[in-house]
Amino acid sequence: MTDTPSHPDAGGAQPAGIAQPAAIALATAVARLARAERLLLALDFDGTLAPFVDIPKAARMLPAIKAALDRLEALPDTWVAYVSGRPLASLEIVTEADEDALLIGSHGVEIRFGRDGVSVDLSDEERATLDKLGETLGALVDSVPGTRLEVKPVGFGVHYRLLEGDEGAAVVARAYEAAASVSDQLTIRDGKDIIEFSVRGADKGDGIERLREYTHATAVLFAGDDVTDEDGFGVLRPEQGDLGIKVGQGETAAQFRVADERAVATLLTLLADAREAARGESAPTSSPA
Ligand SMILES: O=P(O)(O)OC[C@H]1O[C@H](O[C@H]2O[C@H](CO)[C@@H](O)[C@H](O)[C@H]2O)[C@H](O)[C@@H](O)[C@@H]1O
């Protein structure tokens, strides 16, 4: 946390990891968001809540983030949802989802709202393309030590986090070529040390709109770190009180930017404090990681 004075509307605290006066403006926006009638927190997972690790299934959100989200989820008219590129099954594990969890997986293709869900029924043509894609990309990763194929319900991710320097770019080029030999209709997503090819083209913006509809939220907070999260920022309605937060570097349509997951922890803790106060709950003194 910074020790500089805060804006009168900001509830007396500022998010760490960003410079003034942006920190003051963000703290003010968070204080306003805390007073929303029905609040939806739609959150990207990897690189936003959880630091990157070499083994995807080992990723977990920072403890301070988990604590803040648990507090927020316990409040009335407040929903926490995860909107990720991960397959739903993987997202359930890393978020330690309970039976009420709101999850959007596979970049908007897979949906689980509590016990309700949308199953992904592939057409014969999509299934055939997917099978061929798996064989082709499988052969590629088998030929490049350090790469790994992530199997998803509607596509595949080629992971190359363990490669050095230009080796990653070379694998991406070969993956493009391999995928193009299968189909020119694929949705391609260039993520952080992963290149993904899918036979379905939904995006995180679609997922957020489904969540907005389901929760009847009057305000939405979406935070994300990657290029694929720009689809999410694109459907926000700042004029209605929505808030978009970009985590880390890179061009963005989000209104605000914070440095990293620790700054997200600070922000969510401030939001939990402010919303508990707004909803008349006790606001325990809490310190982020
Ligand atoms: O939309 P997100 O929740 O940010 O998911 C994006 C991808 O996240 C996972 O891969 C990334 O995180 C891994 C664990 O830290 C890391 O090893 C990998 O290099 C990153 O690309 C996940 O495995 C993918 O399926 C998601 O698309």
Automatic annotation (TrEMBL):
<dbReference type="InterPro" id="IPR044651">
    <property type="entry name" value="OTSB-like"/>
</dbReference>
<keyword id="KW-0460">Magnesium</keyword>
<comment type="similarity">
    <text>Belongs to the trehalose phosphatase family.</text>
</comment>
<comment type="function">
    <text>Removes the phosphate from trehalose 6-phosphate to produce free trehalose.</text>
</comment>
<dbReference type="Pfam" id="PF02358">
    <property type="entry name" value="Trehalose_PPase"/>
</dbReference>
<dbReference type="GO" id="GO:0004805">
    <property type="term" value="F:trehalose-phosphatase activity"/>
</dbReference>
<dbReference type="InterPro" id="IPR006379">
    <property type="entry name" value="HAD-SF_hydro_IIB"/>
</dbReference>
<dbReference type="InterPro" id="IPR023214">
    <property type="entry name" value="HAD_sf"/>
</dbReference>
<dbReference type="InterPro" id="IPR003337">
    <property type="entry name" value="Trehalose_PPase"/>
</dbReference>
<keyword id="KW-0378">Hydrolase</keyword>
<protein>
    <recommendedName>
        <fullName>Trehalose 6-phosphate phosphatase</fullName>
        <ecNumber>3.1.3.12</ecNumber>
    </recommendedName>
</protein>
<comment type="pathway">
    <text>Glycan biosynthesis; trehalose biosynthesis.</text>
</comment>
<dbReference type="InterPro" id="IPR036412">
    <property type="entry name" value="HAD-like_sf"/>
</dbReference>
<dbReference type="GO" id="GO:0005992">
    <property type="term" value="P:trehalose biosynthetic process"/>
</dbReference>
<keyword id="KW-0479">Metal-binding</keyword>
<dbReference type="GO" id="GO:0046872">
    <property type="term" value="F:metal ion binding"/>
</dbReference>
